[in-house]
Amino acid sequence: MTAVPHAAASHVLPQNALIESGELADLRASVAALARSYGRAYFQTVTREGRHTDALWAEAGKLGFLGVNLPEEYGGGGGGMRELWAVLEELGAQGCPLLMMVVSPAICGTVIARYGTEEQKRRWLPGLADGTRKMAFGITEPDAGSNSHRITTTARRDEATGDWLLTGRKIYVSGVDIAQDTLIVGRTEDARTGTLKPCLFVVPRDTPGFVRNLIPMELQAPEKQFELVLDDVRLPADALVGDEDAGLLQLFAGLNPERIMTAAFALGMGRYALTRAVEYAKVRTVWKQPVGAHQAIAHPLAQAHIELELARLMTVKAAALYDAGDDTGAGEAANMAKYAAAEANIKAVDQAVHTLGGNGLSTEYGLAALINAARVARIAPVSREMILNYVSHQSLGLPKSY
Ligand SMILES: Cc1cc2nc3c(=O)[nH]c(=O)nc-3n(C[C@H](O)[C@H](O)[C@H](O)COP(=O)(O)OP(=O)(O)OC[C@H]3O[C@@H](n4cnc5c(N)ncnc54)[C@H](O)[C@@H]3O)c2cc1C
């Protein structure tokens, strides 16, 4: 067997000045340099030892990478989703994706920056921006799943004190153990049934009645998943972010960033896997030429590259529309970008593992774990099928079956 060194990941996908500004390319290069200095081995070690990526997270925060999308007056970089997406993609392309970026600065940061009171912005945004504070996000419920309109987590007002009392259950909420707070999507007693009129509450991790149970997962990642049980969790009046009567708009503010960032997560992982496979295919020789000379190996890798690049282009569109304030246009593009990136990543990882032959399944080469990890972006935060439903109904005007 020819040994293949774990060389630093290269930029499989060249940056194009017509698509991205020089500043963005510089940001990508700086993030890639930071992530490379930690490397995949760091990520694997902390995961294996049950630790977290605290050191990388803290350094990325100090360098301004984690809050690059948040307003400058609250400690952020004043950029948009283009920048935040670039950060997560580059971390992932070096084998060090920081999953909590999808929820903390992207969903929670955006919702608070857009709909929080001045006091709430001052309380939470600077920490989210420099990474000293993380916020998880809980919407999924065991009996609602993909149908968010069925969520039953209910907020009741204590008329005597003005406090809120929150009761319900959530499932598959990422990173609750490492986040000081969780942004919980509930509904008020007055709007308990029917079309969802969501209310968003910031729940500090140690609030009495807020219980988290670890869900064992077949995923090798430092971030853990939790079931949450909320039993009359008492929150002050100002735990409510935004207006209780605002309807879906406030929640939707966070969902386009969530989809764009999930695309970034998938694109980074796909690039990482493809880079490893290409390096290997160039040197592993069992006949006269390296295995990468066989079209049976080269063409699927070329296809994976094309499909990742296509997904990236849709992500460019989604981020550009979102940053320009076109939430509706961004909705379609963000869903398509998430779909395309997740599917491209699954194919890239599959082909990367196969390219390494038996080594693809070894612990040493570290690619097999990505097979499970790549599936996350297909099911979360919104499944492949729900995106196909969205496009069927919203883009094509086809009738609904549900
Ligand atoms: C690793 C991981 C991290 C996560 N992190 C978070 C988090 O931080 N916060 C959070 O709130 N949630 C999180 N989730 C939950 C995630 O968003 C849900 O798993 C996802 O929305 C799907 O819901 P479900 O699991 O209940 O599947 P279900 O809704 O039960 O769906 C089961 C299957 O049926 C399909 N299906 C459902 N309805 C339809 C339909 N109308 N048409 C066609 N097919 C349909 C789905 O596509 C899926 O394949 C996470 C999940 C995972 C795996």
UniProtKB/TrEMBL annotation:
Keywords tagged on the record: FAD, Flavoprotein, Oxidoreductase
Keyword Transcription regulation: no
Single annotated GO MF: acyl-CoA dehydrogenase activity
Cofactors required: FAD
Entry keyword annotation includes ATP-binding: no
Acyl-CoA dehydrogenase/oxidase N-terminal domain sequence ranges: 23-131
Boundaries of every Acyl-CoA dehydrogenase/oxidase C-terminal domain copy: 247-389
One Pfam family of this chain: Acyl-CoA_dh_1
Gene Ontology CC, one term: cytoplasm
Acyl-CoA oxidase/dehydrogenase middle domain mapped to chain residues: 136-213
GO biological process, one term: fatty acid beta-oxidation using acyl-CoA dehydrogenase
Superkingdom of origin organism: Bacteria
Family label: Belongs to the acyl-CoA dehydrogenase family.
The name this protein goes by in its record: Acyl-CoA dehydrogenase
Species: Streptomyces chumphonensis
UniProt lineage: Bacteria, Bacillati, Actinomycetota, Actinomycetes, Kitasatosporales
